[in-house]
């Protein structure tokens, strides 16, 4: 199969898995493809890339971790457990008007919110233009009145959004690069800016991944800033999904939430009753 190029993306036979798989790279058609593929296999390749097996398309910063995954049959479905769990904020905030996402990845969360949270305007901030370059490969809708992808630093955009008249109801943080959580979102100061930027009853949703000690450190910073108004879902794959609530009077009514969970499951297909059960359990056990 000869190399095929889109305006900026080179499609090659994948160097692993089956012969029908392809790999998509941000390289020119006249590059040394053998050298590039060797870099990918060795782990030395320093750009994001996409692997397509005919059924699923995945975004990688390295071979060891899948950053985002899309079903080619149903591009708007959430494939990864952690992305599904991040939508649990809908149990507490049913009709958000303004969602700010830090980190684009393959656009899974943006697409899901675009389809299922019709009340919301969605702004997605991504610092790496090379990630944004793959948006068409993951069938992210074009920017319009409800969706805007911004190239920039998420921490800066949080500050800007906090100064706007229409503050975000939800800030979703999934800001990773090939080294883990971005440095600009790894401090108590950052979480304080998130708290300040949220609307009065706003919710922060954070995906914490990586070493256990790092996750515990971030969770402690979040709990400190949000005065312990924190719930979490710990996933078997090592991701912790953390919800933090700005409203001082936060007091979840779990019976009402259980009913809301059933309605959300019927509407979206996600297992919201399971999310509600795990979040209530984390509240009882103090989430740590």
From TrEMBL:
Q: Which InterPro entries match?
A: PABS (IPR030374), SAM-dependent_MTases_sf (IPR029063)
Q: Where are the transmembrane segments?
A: none
* GO annotation terms (biological process): polyamine biosynthetic process
Q: Record's superkingdom? A: Bacteria
> What Gene Ontology molecular-function terms does this entry list?
transferase activity
Domain PABS: where? 13-265
Catalytic residues, chain numbering: 174 (proton acceptor)
One Pfam family from the UniProt entry? Spermine_synth
Which keywords does UniProt give here?
Polyamine biosynthesis, Transferase
Task: Report the sequence similarity comment from the record.
Answer: Belongs to the spermidine/spermine synthase family.
Entries under PANTHER family matching the protein: THERMOSPERMINE SYNTHASE ACAULIS5 (PTHR43317:SF1)
Name-wise, this protein is: Spermidine synthase-like protein
Please tell me the species this chain comes from: Zoogloea oleivorans
